[in-house]
Design a protein that fits this description.
Strand 14 and strand 15 form a beta hairpin. With about 400 residues, the protein is mainly beta. The structure holds beta-D-galactopyranose. The site of beta-D-galactopyranose has 9 residues, from strand 6 and strand 14.
């Protein structure tokens, strides 16, 4: 009996210590219940003074979705309380698009003032069909944490050409035939991709939508940003006022440049887009684009804004991470959120959250920091710590970062 008490005491003690231990980039992060946080490819919704972190609830051995989308709530971005599953996969109907075992990635949630609904979009692949479906999924809820009800999943903007495509470009696209470009990666093939070879291929059935982001602009218009055309070209597509459909207006960004993991934010009069290259779960160098309007013209690749002096966290590999979201805090701090994928043990994937700073000429910089332990007494170096920056009440410390 004594052993049982001792065991319970040690268990509770370790859970408490885990829950209170400050998180360092790349280490295991724990929720307030002492469990490892499982919210990969995620994003954060800010709502009434709370942060809602949504992400892929991954399994220990497979990347297939066995649970759905997880949700954690916090007031300070440090202590995260796990909520019930926000969007559950369908365990009863094997024919459901979100049947248990599907691939459900990169969920993001925004609030729609018109309908007073919370709207979740995600990248969906049908069970047993690899990455061929390339669908955009949508679900809605009345409360930020859910439960979310699945609405539909589909290819995007079927039958519609991008905004601003002129007659000459349209004619050029119409001459492109896939059989003439059987060999991929040749200069001719690359040109054909940029000119719309796959755009044309998918015109009737709708455009592919894989790695994705949502962005609500200052005027309240929401956009869906996604890797399309076999991950070769990004699209930015406008959503309807209820945020649950596409209006049909969209643009292509960086045609043929193979971008994934798009993160969009606004700073200093520019819209910034930070992406990764396409190397699956393996990290690669980030790329930066910018535009004066969300509708472009998008300029770039402007290079990799990451910097690191830690050999094991090379900037050339985005510190071993891949972007998932840029969170702008009420105090103006912008946090780049990235995943360190562990594909052999998906649930154990780690998180890297780093503040974005700017050079004198206004270019974003993301500098590797393992994160200092936040101390009660905030002085000198600890002022630069990530947690300090997160706390709006300690804004003083942010200045001069
Ligand atoms: C990554 C992508 C992830 C996931 C993975 C599958 O490039 O960003 O979200 O789709 O590929 O290999």
């Amino acid at each position: 009996m004594r052993n049982v008490f001792l065991f319970s005491f040690l268990f509770i003690l370790s859970a408490t210590l885990c829950a209170q231990r400050p998180a360092a980039n790349g280490e295991r992060w724990y929720d307030t219940g002492g469990k490892q946080i499982n919210a990969h490819g995620g994003g954060v919704l800010q709502w009434k003074g709370r942060y809602y972190w949504f992400g892929e609830d991954k399994d220990t051995v497979t990347n297939a979705a066995l649970t759905g989308v997880s949700c954690y709530v916090s007031r300070d971005l440090r202590r995260w309380k796990k909520m019930p599953t926000a969007l559950s996969v369908d365990t009863t109907d094997a024919t459901s698009p979100i049947a248990r075992g599907c691939t459900l990635e990169r969920p993001k949630v925004i609030y729609c003032p018109l309908t007073k609904q919370f709207v979740m979009w995600f990248h969906l692949e049908l069970k047993g069909r690899g990455y061929s479906a390339a669908l955009a999924g949508v679900a809605t809820a009345r409360r930020p944490e859910g439960p979310y009800t699945f609405v539909r999943a589909e290819r995007v903007n079927a039958g519609l050409l991008p905004v601003g495509m002129n007659q000459a470009e349209r004619q050029r696209m119409d001459t492109l035939r896939e059989e003439n470009y059987a060999e991929w990666w040749t200069p001719q093939w690359r040109q054909a991709i940029a000119d719309g070879l796959f755009l044309r291929r998918d015109l009737r059935g709708g455009q592919m939508a894989r790695d994705m982001q949502l962005y609500v602009d200052a005027d309240g218009t929401a956009y869906h940003i996604y890797s399309s055309e076999d991950n070769l070209t990004l699209h930015i597509a406008e959503l309807t006022p209820d945020f649950t459909r596409h209006t049909g207006r969209y643009i292509r960004v960086a045609p043929g440049q193979q971008n994934e993991a798009p993160c969009l934010w606004r700073h200093g009069g520019w819209y910034w887009l930070l992406c990764s290259g396409c190397t699956g779960w393996a990290p690669n160098a980030a790329r930066l684009y910018r535009a004066p309007s969300i509708w472009g013209p998008w300029e770039g690749d402007l290079g990799n804004p990451c910097r690191s002096d830690a050999p094991l966290r090379p900037a050339s590999k985005t510190f071993l991470g891949q972007g998932t979201y840029v969170l702008t805090l009420p105090n103006g701090t912008e946090l780049f959120m990235a995943d360190e994928w562990h594909p052999q043990r998906p649930a154990d994937g780690r998180y890297l959250w780093l503040p974005i700073s700017y050079t004198a000429d206004g270019m974003p910089r993301i500098v590797w920091e393992r994160i200092k332990v936040p101390s009660k007494k905030i002085t000198g170096k600890s002022c630069r710590s990530w947690h300090t920056m997160l706390n709006p009440r300690r804004m003083k410390c942010v200045v001069g970062y």
